[in-house]
Description:
Alpha-Beta Plaits, 3 domains, 4-stranded antiparallel β-sheet, 9 helices, 8 strands, 21% strand, globular
Amino acid sequence: MSGHSKWANIKRTKGKNDAARGKIFTKLVKDISIAVKIGGADPDSNSKLRDAIWAAKSNNLPSDNITRTIKKASGELGSANYEEVIYEGYGPGGAAVIVYTLTDNKNRTAGDIRHTFDKYGGALGMANCVSYLFKRKGIIVIEDTDKINEDDLMMDSLEAGAEDVTNEDGLYEIVTEPADINTVKQYLEGKGYTFISSDVEMIPAAYMPLDEGKMESFKKLLNTFEESDDVQEVYHNVELTEEEDEE
């Protein structure tokens, strides 16, 4: 299976094992923290936080964890000014990589991102050097259960304004234009559907394979980015197997 982002890969293995669930919880907590740092702790006036809370509840993240995360993020704000910075570059074998970060120190983050690319055989590039290889799309993920009729979901999704619906490994993926994702989500929610996730993501136009040696370096590159406190999302165009998705 191909994967366009680490988060997308985790979502596609949702429920297969406890490790995947733990990674999902970690990502949800981080999303809530980021939303608070950007727009404050009031979900009524912070739509990004409202969506993050919705996603957390949809994935059964305990309410105490949500409340504690919001309080912690609020207390850490202080006088720091957080800014979203996007980096583009090339991984091993020329793979296209886009890294979304949130930072209060652009010099530190830029240095870390550059070092990670260099360490694993890649290179930090100029703005827009690889983004033309991707398209922004809304992605809504629903788990395939006995309660869902595929034809009904397809009809409901298209009626709501979705572009496409696919089913792979027990998960439905509904694709929308970025501006339509909330409309489609609300329509389907009114129809009684429950979601695993709802995000605007960067989807590559095509995927590229890597040989075994370069793939090992590429996975280390992704893991290092994932472990960074500054990194929000990583998108790429490398073709990954299902086993590699789960690592």
